[in-house]
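Standup notes, structure subgroup. Blocker cleared on the iron/sulfur cluster input:
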Amino acid sequence: MRFTSGRPSSDRGHDIARAMWPDVTQKDWNDWQWQFVNRVSSIKTLGILLGLSADRLSAYEGLVSTYKYAVTPYYLSLINWPDPHDPIKKQCLPDLRETTFRLPGSDEDPLAEERHSPVPGLIHRYPDRALVVLTNMCAMYCRHCNRKRNWKNQGERTLGRAALNRIIAYIKNTPVIREVIISGGDPLLVSLGFLDEILWGISAIPHIDAIRIGTRIPVVMPMRITDELCRLLSRRRPIWLNTHFNHPAEITDAAISACDKILKAGIPISNHTVLLKGVNDSAHTILSLCRALQRHMIRPYYLFHCDAVTGTDHFRTGIQKGIEIMNVLQGNLGGLAVPDYVVDLPSGGGKARVMPSQLVSIDDNMAVFKTFEGGDIHYLAPNGADSR
Ligand code: SF4
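Run returned:
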């Protein structure tokens, strides 16, 4: 068979997929349930994929028993195996540094989400927004995940109806909340009936203006974006969908077709990217990513500095790296395609935008700006309307 949904630039990943699932039909490959059931998650397969000796394999056993792994055949098929620095492989396959490498300041829950959880499954950190952690289940367990603590040493679980009722009651009784973010784990993995119940329950609350869904499904298992799911989302608007492309190699025909369906259902898509060392920490990579996202009507929304989460330290760059990248983006992209570079502050301090400033100096009469080409422009700005 010929896989039609992999990475266009390389067929090597497809060769591995063909070897692992020689009899799969195209119909099955494009079926999200087949993809989900056939996720690669065993230590034995990891040993084969990484070519590990018995000694090394036992070290990985310890790692995987702490931080499990699971990868859809689709996402696995995007790996360019001859490339030792392949950005897809780094995001999906475990790395021993997850348990052996620590930078100062890392913490299981640096954003203090647990402390801001008034009822189980709900995080209320900003006055006007609340986040529902609907499930800890993901199609793929991203190695850089900032909620790694939720899948550590745990099975896959989704909130029950009683927990959901408590969450809805809390939101109803807290009129200051105007936006609800449904996240996880991946909320698009729960049954459509349950998802509809949640969306209906939240959208019926009069003070809720918007629902945002946080999902990596279009990137890691795009087959899940079915017509039925899109009809459901369309019925419950206003819904905003936030997804998570980190690298241009993730922008495949299948991913774009999934996003197109969502857009045609009337749901705007924004993207957040996490700045990851060795994956996308170059201006060229982020610039290409933002251009490709804009081409497909996905708004680059945030470039997140990688949080200081235990088990992800090997992915962290310096903040200076993000500023360097933003300088290049600002000079080479129209505003619609420039994400905000954001550091999520520890202890629940909230998001801080770290945008390079073009303002060099200012006084009562004059402002001096740095142009994107590096020159200085003096802008006459005498005390005007303010002082009259
Ligand atoms: S899909 Fe999101 S919640 Fe799931 S592992 Fe990846 S980053 Fe974490």
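Discussed briefly. The pocket of iron/sulfur cluster is lined by residues 138, 141-142, 145, 147, 184-186, 216 (CB under 6 Å).
Next: hand off to the docking folks.
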